[in-house]
Every structure is written in C-alpha cells, then in structure tokens.
Amino acid sequence: MPRLRCEIYDSQGLAHPPLAVILHPEAQPKEDAGPIRSRHRKLGASAFSLISLPLFWMGARSSSSGDLAIFLGINCILLALRFLYWDLGLKHSERKRLKRLEDHRRMERGDA
Fold first, then answer.
1. How far is the C-alpha of 3 from the C-alpha of 8, rounded, in Å?
2. How far apart (Å, rounded) are the C-alpha atoms in residues 7 and 1?
3. CA atoms of 28 and 17, how far apart (whole Å)
4. pTM
5. The domain containing residue 83 runs over which residues?
6. How many domains does the chain have?
7. 70 assigned to some structural domain
8. Is residue 66 assigned to a domain?
9. By the 8 A CB rule, do 91 and 38 touch?
10. Spatial separation of the C-alpha atoms in residues 84 and 51, rounded to whole Å
11. Residue 65: CB partners within 8 Å, gap ≥ 6?
12. How does pLDDT run across 48-74, given as a tens digit for each residue?
C-alpha cells in the first residue's frame, strides 16, 4: 500500500514527534528530512547568494534602477538565509528524534 504511513510514538504520545516513521519506498523521497532534499536546500541557498552579488553590483553602479537591484539583492540574501535555517531546523529535529529513540530503547532494555 504505497500511501500507507505508520508512525510509532513513545509513552508521551502526540506530545512529541514520532520516534519512527515507516513509509512505502516510493514515498520515501518525498520526505523533507532526507539528504537529497538537504542538498537541494543548500544549493538553493548558494544560488540565491550568488544571484545577490551581481544585483548589489548593479545597484552600486546604476543610478536609475539601483534601488530595485539592491532591494532584490537583499531579498535574495534573506531567502538564502531562510533556506539554511530551514535545513538547520530539520537536522536539529532529526537529531532530537534519534536521541529520544535511543533513550527509549535504553529504557526498554533496562539500562536507564
């Protein structure tokens, strides 16, 4: 069943994100936390950073459309920072999930 998604929670239930998510292999690439999507976010941030450089240069050199070019350059930098922040947030939540999963496994074994 390709559209079936199983989420496994700990004893706290929906208070935290699931410990594990089981998906059909076809649905796996659609997840945001994967390494391919992370690479795309970083490439997008790099591209917007590079696009901002000629915009700032055009803004400094031009008198008529300089304000628009600088405005667009600032927005490109902000968009690049947003992509990086998005990637950092997803990686942080994944690390927290893995730590909770390991703590849960340790508790089940009686090592806690």
1. 16
2. 15
3. 18
4. 0.70
5. 48-97
6. 1
7. yes
8. yes
9. yes
10. 16
11. 58
12. 999 999 999 999 998 778 889 999 999
First to last CA, the chain: 37
Q: Give the DSSP letter of residue 112.
A: -
| Rounded Cα distance, 63 and 58, in Å | 9
CA–CA separation, 66 and 1 (whole Å): 55
- Scan for tokens 């917007």, then name that residue: 48
Distance CA 96, CA 105 (A): 14
57 falls within a domain:
yes
Residue 2 lies in a domain: no
What CA–CA distance (Å, rounded) separates 76 from 95? 29
Q: Confidence class of residue 86 from pLDDT cuts 50, 70 and 90? A: very high
What are the helix (H) ranges across 1-112? 35-61, 66-109
